[in-house]
Amino acid sequence: MPLGSVMLDIASTELSAEDRELLAQPAVGGVILFARNYHDPVQLAALTASIRALREPPLLIAVDQEGGRVQRFREGFKRLPPAGYFGKLYRQSPPSAQRAASVLGWLMASELQAAGVDYSFAPVLDIDRGICRAIGDRAFSDEPATVAELGAAWMQGARLAGMASVGKHFPGHGGVSVDSHLALPRDERSFATLLRQDIAPFQALIDQGLEAVMPAHVVYPAIDEAPAGFSPRWLKDILRGRLGFNGVIISDALDMAAAAAAGNDVERAKAALAAGCGQLLACNNRTAAIQVVEALEDDLDPVAQSRLSRLYSRHSTPHAKLEAHPFWAEANALLDQFETASNAELAYDPTTRGGTVT
Fold it and tell me: Is 19 an annotated catalytic residue?
């Protein structure tokens, strides 16, 4: 059965009968996991194995494991610093910061793959302009060139471990104060400004083979009155046409408040597909998810399916063997350095239900 376009969530640490039935539907192509789905690495590995056993080819499995305040799996996994920490290191020593981002990107990917997860929704390529609390230290820096260098280093580290990367939130969420989880932001800047600043990190990583991009639920009226994730102008003309991106476009969560600009749940899904998304995140509303899956039952795009297949984990090293890898000791030394240097501020998390993709 080919991969469908819908990525769903599940409620608990193991599959229910309803989960199994829904995940078998043709429109489904993956599962996004959250903190509520995790108890420890052994349980997680059993859960991912049960998901993979449902279909052939297996469903894709993903998670938000950025580090800092957006890390769904914590106990039993290494606690990763927020991206902003690498930006602080960069001001002291760019080579050291790039090395740290690469090694910890490898660590993030290796631990996830050992538990059966294909990819993380990372790295964040937004610019931290100091006005968007939803982004903040999730961004590497307030300088586009620094974001590009550190984002690329993170991507290359994850790639070395065998994991694809997802750059988000295209074309940039850092220029607005409104949190798209709660309302629809508008960024009034010109396209020339966006291209020179916020889009530059995306272009840099695309040029290095970035596998997937997540667009923002933000309106940029100088270009289109539709939010970027529902805009053919942004996704087809600019992202694919002008920037030359040929990977997977993954919608941000369709349950977010900003997504309501595209209509009801089914209308949002169809609008995102029509705009150019190849994978849709339908989470935290099972009734809506069922409606979306039923509405898209026959909407199977061979090109999108081919792109999705590139997101599978390319290899996996059992966790016990990771400790023999040369990067393991270096990664742990870096984490010790982070703990000594800073206690990351984890207080703000807009995902009050422990669920919405950030």
Answer: no
DSSP letter (8 states) at residue 239:
I
Q: State the catalytic residue, choosing from 64, 179, 187, 252.
A: 252
List the chain domain ranges.
67-285+301-341
Q: Quick one: which H or E segment has residue 167?
A: strand 166-170
CA nearest neighbour of 8 among 228, 214, 253: 253
Question: Which helix (H) or strand (E) covers residue 204, if one does?
Answer: helix 199-206
Per-residue pLDDT of the chain (358 residues), as tens digits, is 889 999 999 999 999 999 999 999 999 999 999 999 999 999 999 999 999 999 999 999 999 999 999 999 999 999 999 999 999 999 999 999 999 999 999 999 999 999 999 999 999 999 999 999 899 999 999 999 999 999 999 999 999 999 999 999 999 999 998 888 888 999 999 999 999 999 999 999 999 999 999 999 999 999 999 999 999 999 999 999 999 999 999 999 999 888 888 899 999 999 999 999 999 999 999 999 999 999 998 877 888 888 999 999 988 788 888 988 989 999 999 999 998 876 544 333 333 334 554 5
Radius of gyration (C-alpha) of the chain in whole angstroms? 19
Cβ proximity of 282 and 8 under 8 Å: yes
How many other C-beta atoms can be found within 10 angstroms of the C-beta atom of residue 27?
22
Name the catalytic one among 173, 181, 187, 198. Answer: 181
Please say whether the structural domain 67-285+301-341 has been given the CATH code 1.10.10.10.
no
Distance from C-alpha of 117 to C-alpha of 309, rounded to nearest angstrom: 14
Q: Which of 277, 265, 151 is nearest to 216 (CA)?
A: 277
- Between CA 289 and CA 299 the distance in angstroms is 15
Q: Which two tokens stand for residue 107?
A: 């660590």
| DSSP states of 266-280 | HHHHHHHHHHT-SBE
The C-alpha atoms of residue 358 and residue 353 are separated, in whole angstroms, by 12
Query: Cα separations (Å) of 282 from 28, 108, 172, 259?
Result: 10, 25, 22, 11
Active site residue 319: no
Please give the model's pTM, rounded to 2 decimal places: 0.93
Alpha-carbon gap, residue 140 to 101, rounded angstroms: 10
